[in-house]
Specification:
It is a single chain. This protein is α+β, with helices and mostly antiparallel strands and 157 residues long. It has 4 helices and 5 strands. The strands form 2 sheets. Strands 1-2-3 form a 3-stranded antiparallel beta sheet, with no helix packed on it. The protein has a two-stranded antiparallel sheet with strand order 4-5. Helix 1 crosses helix 3. It is globular and about 60 Å long.
Length: 157
């Protein structure tokens, strides 16, 4: 699936983030009309005022998975009474801090457990699982990667 969306189906999402002045790791985030704080725990130099970026990544996958199951159950005409997910991932912080050569800074892997409940057959829910695996945007970004183009502007004092 590498076909590009048409302008009529394309949705552009934007988020802004800024370091809170005077803090080491606290970031003020705005997504549409929603404001929230991202921070690191004290063990990683922060003040623990919010979930950290990696926890937000897992939260994005958790919520997108749950929403995708609900949307695709409806699309397939299936009744879904409950969707619960548990996620975990292992990170070697030596990659983030650059203290070990060759250690990647991201997750070594992510475990995603899904529990479905409802009156449909297991075969129907397996069909639903396949639809979600094929259409969940966050899962797609994590499993297939997405190009990231970075531009940096520097203002000197």
């Amino acid at each position: 699936m590498t076909q590009t969306a048409t302008k009529s189906t394309q949705l552009t999402t934007t988020v802004q983030g800024s370091l809170v002045r005077g803090s080491a790791t606290e970031v003020a985030i705005t997504a549409r009309q929603f404001d929230f704080t991202v921070d690191e725990p004290a063990a990683l130099g922060g003040t623990d005022k919010g979930a950290n970026p990696i926890e937000h990544l897992l939260a994005a996958l958790a919520s997108c998975t749950v929403i995708s199951y609900q949307v695709w159950a409806d699309t397939l005409g299936l009744t879904l009474e409950g969707v619960d997910v548990d996620l975990s991932g292992d990170i070697d912080v030596a990659g983030f801090f650059g203290t070990a050569e060759g250690v990647r800074p991201g997750f070594q892997g992510i475990e995603l457990g899904v529990r479905l409940s409802g009156p449909e057959s297991e075969a129907d829910y397996r069909r639903l699982e396949e639809a979600v695996a094929a259409h969940c945007p966050v899962l797609d970004n994590l499993t297939h990667g997405v190009p990231v183009r970075t531009t940096v502007e520097v203002s000197t004092a």
